Hints:
Elements: H1 4-9, H2 12-20, H3 24-28, H4 42-49, E1 53-59, E2 65-71, E3 77-81, E4 84-90, H5 97-104, E5 107-114, E6 119-131, H6 138-142, E7 151-164, H7 176-201
Amino acid sequence: MGNRFAEIAFTPAVQAQQEAHGTRASYARFSEGPPWNDRITEKEAEFIHARDGFYLASVSETGWPYVQFRGGPPGFLRVLDDRTLGWADFRGNRQYVSVGNVSGDARVALILMDYANRRRLKILGRAESLEVGADDGLAARLAVSAYEAKIERAVRVRVEGFDWNCPQHITPRFTLEEVERAVTPLRERVAALELRLANCEGGLDPAAG
């Protein structure tokens, strides 16, 4: 059994490529032992709750993959229990491609990015889309206070497996909030130095005692 993500993702064709490129032996141990990487721990939960968006991949009836970005305030993606994620699905361009795909094939993949710290979490699961009013109040429980976007449905995902990626080739990027947190101390320092300079020019140096 072993690593649940590898069990799902490492198909015979994938294993053949690993063998051809010399990595199969190192990955073979992933299939050993009891199931693991199928239950959300505190580490994953903390990472998930800090995200303000993620990429959602679904499978169409024609077999084509479809990837869409889902965004909202940090914490809108919730860990409902150690095998279940959920989020309030806000109204967007109303194409409903992901919703339609999930209605025919529940299999989805989520990629969660922390560009600033070069971390990435991949999650495989089975999604269920529940329209508001037919969801036993799940959408209301997943609502984000002070966020005015209209909730059309709740989405619940049963986690089948997950995997943390290495940081290689992840270019650091920063949100406006992250930049503001980084530069605020610098702005405060500049303001203090400007005040000190102004006092010096006026003959009043507070550092002189």
